[in-house]
């Protein structure tokens, strides 16, 4: 189906030029046979989205950047949102950028949809001309690691059961002041290098503790300060979406009173929501049926 991809890519570049797009995002799983290349790459970047251990197809040329997302079940729109969120966190995108996204179904292996995303409108709480300065003291790699773990928990659960949990990143001193320990802190007493979320050997431990009530509190450099933390900050917003439970209200409350970011996994729906300044920055929904 290389000819379909070539036609779609040719159109995508024309479209990107017409809308003055910052980049074209292509999913590697639907671009394995792509041979078309841009003869004028100066005006628009090509970025490849890979899932899990996918690699960049050798035939794809002029790919400036690669964004990797977890190989889990997400709706097509959520895949796009996740990739762009990661692009924002690494400084690739900012408010006002337009992005042409090419997606398809993995088992068919070719592009069948084109989306144009306006970052400022889709991510409405991103201030104009702001990249992910909202990360404040949070390392981008820490944000990405926590987001990956959250996406995996939402899609896979723990031992076959759905899991709901919450991670609070950054502004740790104030977060700790506005919260209290519900259980004995399982991370207390360990050296910092042994409880840093960037240590991939901790992933299973974190997933195991995700069944605990309360939140994980994570310092901006990735050090896990606590699990099972009850957030005491009250939320007074009037425009909070209906149907969201106490975990989401707590996330809105703590982020409205601190410079932290909250990532919440919904036990009932498997949706991952990112909170900043008391508002939902983006929500990422899992797919009902995995697209293979």
Write the layout of secondary structure elements.
Layout: H1 2-19, E1 23-27, E2 45-51, E3 65-69, H2 76-89, E4 98-105, E5 110-118, H3 119-122, H4 140-156, E6 165-169, H5 172-177, E7 179-181, H6 203-209, E8 215-218, E9 224-231, H7 246-257, E10 261-265, E11 272-276, E12 279-284
Parallel strand pairs: 1-2, 1-4, 2-3, 6-8
Antiparallel strand pairs: 4-5, 6-10, 7-9, 8-9, 10-11, 11-12
Task: Write structural notes for this entry.
The structure is a single chain. Helices cover 27% and strands 24% of the residues. It starts with a helix and ends in an 8-residue tail after the last strand. It has helices at 2-19, 76-89, 119-122, 140-156, 172-177, 203-209, 246-257; strands spanning 23-27, 45-51, 65-69, 98-105, 110-118, 165-169, 179-181, 215-218, 224-231, 261-265, 272-276, 279-284. It is built from seven helices and twelve strands. It is α/β, with parallel strands linked by helices and 292 residues long.
């Amino acid at each position: 189906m290389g000819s379909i991809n070539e036609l779609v890519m040719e159109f995508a570049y024309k479209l990107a030029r017409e809308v003055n797009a910052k980049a074209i995002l292509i999913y590697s799983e639907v671009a394995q046979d792509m041979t078309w290349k841009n003869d004028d790459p100066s005006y628009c970047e090509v970025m490849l989205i890979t899932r899990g251990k996918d690699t960049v197809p050798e035939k794809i040329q002029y790919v400036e950047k690669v964004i990797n997302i977890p190989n889990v079940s997400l709706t097509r729109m959520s895949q796009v949102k996740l990739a762009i969120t990661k692009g924002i966190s690494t400084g690739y995108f900012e408010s006002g950028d337009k992005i042409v996204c090419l997606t398809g179904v993995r088992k068919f292996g070719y592009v069948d949809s084109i989306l144009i995303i306006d970052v400022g409108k889709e991510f409405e709480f991103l201030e104009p001309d702001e990249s992910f300065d909202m990360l404040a003291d949070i390392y981008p790699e820490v944000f990405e690691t926590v987001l990956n773990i959250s996406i995996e928990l939402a899609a896979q659960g723990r031992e076959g059961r759905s899991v709901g949990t919450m991670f609070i990143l950054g502004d740790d001193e104030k977060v700790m002041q506005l919260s209290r320990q519900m259980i004995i802190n399982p991370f207390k007493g360990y050296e910092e290098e042994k409880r840093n979320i960037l240590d991939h050997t901790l992933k299973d431990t974190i997933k195991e503790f995700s069944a605990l009530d309360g939140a994980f509190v994570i310092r901006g450099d990735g050090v896990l300060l606590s699990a099972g933390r009850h957030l005491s900050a009250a939320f007074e917003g009037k425009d909070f979406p209906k149907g969201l439970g106490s975990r989401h209200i707590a996330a809105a409350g703590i982020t409205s009173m601190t410079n932290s970011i909250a990532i919440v996994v919904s036990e009932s729906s498997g949706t991952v929501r990112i909170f900043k300044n008391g508002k939902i920055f983006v929500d990422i929904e899992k797919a009902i049926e995995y697209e293979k």
